[in-house]
Every structure is written in structure tokens, then in C-alpha cells.
Amino acid sequence: MNENIVKRNELLAQKVIKGLESRNMSGYYAATKEEALQKALELIPKGSSITMGGCMSANEIGLVDAVKTAEYRFIDRYAAADRAAAERESYAADVYLASANAMTEDGVLVNIDGNSNRVSAIAYGPKKVIFIVGMNKVCDDVDGAMKRARNVAAPINAQRFGLATPCAKTGSCMNCKSPDTICCQFLITRYSKHPGRIHVILVNDNLGF
Fold it and tell me: Which residues constitute the domain of residue 42?
């Protein structure tokens, strides 16, 4: 990565971290995927029950493979006989792994969801939520973050899942009410009532969608 982009990301990350701290959330900056993985594992005690929604960023830094070991209890909804039951079990998990569809420079997290298992777990349930967020997802403000979530993340995810939504065909949000829409619930996380619950690892890389 260009050294000027790296420097810009380092400076911007410090601004984001201050914003998170003002919102009762913890922020960290990782210069590489390897550093991000190390920091995430530092935040997860051995023996923890761990689960996640659809989080490409956690996969990309190797975190999912790292917690699928005997040292942790990973609740894998894809391997479960009853996926819905596994998703409900996530509310009692010690750690929930997530990313953000977008976030703001002052520390507000924006997520959209179809089935809503992900946004509901982020909002309430698991004892600790760890976000893995590439610097490509940091936007100026909530309006910009919402636009990114709807016009970048949603179309790509709709295409990835093979859904018949207008955005999957056009590449941008059509504000649809399609049966396949994945924009059912919008979660804006602007403050955490519980100190020590939400942790955001900012990664100097382009992660997720």
C-alpha cells in the first residue's frame, strides 16, 4: 500500500478511536491483518463461546479459523443441524464477531440486515462484540455511511447470495420492497450503554464489502 495512504489511515484511525471512546466503545488500530488477528485474540479469553453473523472481514484476517479450535467453543450456524437455533444461541455467547457495513469518522457504526440476527445480536445479547473494520469503510458522517451501506455493501451481498433484488442487477440501491431485500433493518450504533462490550479493530486494509 502507498506510504501516503498508510499515513492517512493511521491519522484517520486515531480520530475514529477518539470518537469511539467518546461513545463508550473501545477502538484499536492494526497496521496489518496479522496485527488485527493478534489484537482480536487478545480480547477473547480462552474457553469463550464465540459466534458471528456474516462477517467476511473476520474471515479475511484469519480470525474465524483461529477460534475454530479446542481452545474456544465456536457456535457455527452453518454446521448446525438447526441454523435458527444456533443463531438464537448467539445471544448468550461470550463473544460476537462482526464487521460494519460502514462507520463514521467520529465512531458511529452503521449496519443493515435482512434476517436481522446480526443487527439484533450487535445491539443486545452477547457479552462482548468485536468488530473487524477495514479503513475502506470509514465515511465522513452518518449520511455517507448509510449511502455506503446501501449502495456498496448491499448490492455486493445481494449478488453474493444470488438474490433477485434490483440492486443486484443495477449495482446501486433502488429503495426496493423486493421479497429478497436484505435492507430490512438498519442499526445505527452511536453509543454503548455497557462499558467494555463493544470493541472496534480498525485495519489498514480493504476488508469486506
Answer: 3-203
